[in-house]
Specification:
The structure is a single chain. With about 350 residues, this protein is α/β, with parallel strands linked by helices. It is built from 13 helices and 13 strands. Strand 5, helix 5 and strand 6 form a beta-alpha-beta unit. The longest helix has 22 residues. The structure holds zinc ion. The site of zinc ion has 5 residues, from strand 5.
Length: about 350
């Protein structure tokens, strides 16, 4: 028997799904968006992969879409919206060119290799360009993102219950409860300062009797030659810090070193200036005006956060170093995706 609350939640979700499906069936979202006038919607993807394939490595919740769903989403965009480039957005912000009333910018964060293997060919097949924000310490599989290591640690450890750092006593005796424990641990750890996070990760490794993070399996992240090839074919490359810290958790000097370090490394690889930056995690509170000022000082032209919605010209010019992007998540069906592209994210849960 479902609990009253969960029944209420599920009913609300079903009603929302029906409401979202109606404009999509009618093809109304693009028209609603056009009525709003000249504006930008940024889309934020992480991984494009099948999280249910047996060889999948890492945190399943970080998958934004399977390749098939991504292709369907691109077809919807091509048919109904104007996919714009980073250059178009910068020209718009600087007042040098107008933007369509149905402009959409596609972006990817972190630098997973599945972006190169699965997303790039789908973009190229439709003659589209996107933006790839790379966290430079992780390229060439030099390091593993902690969320991927945590997910794998819970997946493969031999224990079924433990007194866990950060969470206390937890039972994880099935694939579902292991996945939930990893989700809770990752969500809790996200708020920690980097040094404390490193200690807790080592504590977790001891507790679960697994090796601490030392690197991902080969091929999880893009290689530098792949970054270069992507830049020629279908991605404009942006910076995303060196070690992927939440910059508001650092001293202002450390934050500047992280931001500048990723820019310099990318420019050395690419041979030309990198003008775009995306804040790790990117939620309100994960960065502030002092970090936007760093972007300006370092000669970036544009910066991106990770909260969705329409950006109009006035906001874009005022907040050019903290533009909105809507997160795309693997459970997003086409009606939900269409609502996000229309800028209707306030109605959605995420
Ligand atoms: Zn990121």
């Amino acid at each position: 028997m479902p609990q009253p609350n969960s029944l209420k939640t599920r009913t609300t979700t079903m009603v929302k799904r029906q409401i979202l499906a109606a404009p999509q069936r009618l093809g109304a979202w693009p028209h609603l968006r056009r009525l709003a006038g000249e504006s930008l919607v940024g889309l934020l993807y992480h991984r494009i992969d099948d999280p249910d394939r047996p060889e999948f490595y890492g945190y399943r919740d970080n998958v934004s879409a399977t390749r098939e769903a991504f292709a369907t989403q691109l077809d919807y965009l091509v048919k109904n919206f104007d996919v714009v480039t980073l250059d178009d957005c910068i020209a718009w912000i600087e007042g040098r060119a107008p933007l369509s009333s149905r402009a959409v910018l596609i972006t990817f964060d972190d630098g997973y290799r599945d972006n190169f293997i699965n997303a790039a060919p789908e973009l190229a097949a439709r003659n589209l360009r996107a933006v790839l924000f790379a966290a430079t310490a992780f390229m060439d599989d030099q390091a593993v993102f902690y969320w991927d290591w945590v997910a794998e640690a819970f997946r493969w450890c031999s224990q079924t219950e433990a007194e866990l750092p950060l969470l206390g006593f937890t039972v994880f005796d099935s694939p579902q409860t292991r996945r939930r424990a990893a989700q809770r641990w990752i969500t809790t750890a996200k708020a920690l300062l980097d040094e404390e996070k490193r200690q807790r990760i080592n504590d977790l490794a001891d507790c679960l009797q697994v090796l601490p993070p030392h690197g991902p399996p080969p091929g999880l992240h893009m290689t530098w030659p792949e970054v270069g090839a992507s830049a020629r074919d279908c991605f404009d490359i942006g910076a995303h810090t060196v070690n992927h810290p939440i910059v508001s958790r650092l001293s202002i000097d450390e934050a500047e070193r992280e931001i500048a370090g990723s820019k310099t490394t990318l420019e050395n690889v690419l041979g030309y200036p990198v003008r775009a930056f995306a804040y790790p995690n990117g939620q309100p509170g994960d960065f502030g005006p002092e970090h936007e000022a760093i972007l300006q000082k370092l000669d970036f032209s544009i910066g991106f956060a990770a909260h969705g919605g329409l950006t109009f010209a006035a906001e874009a010019r005022q907040k050019r170093f903290a533009l909105r992007r809507a997160c795309i998540n693997n459970p997003d069906d086409l009606p939900r995706f269409a609502a996000k592209v229309a800028g209707a994210t306030r109605f959605l849960d995420s």
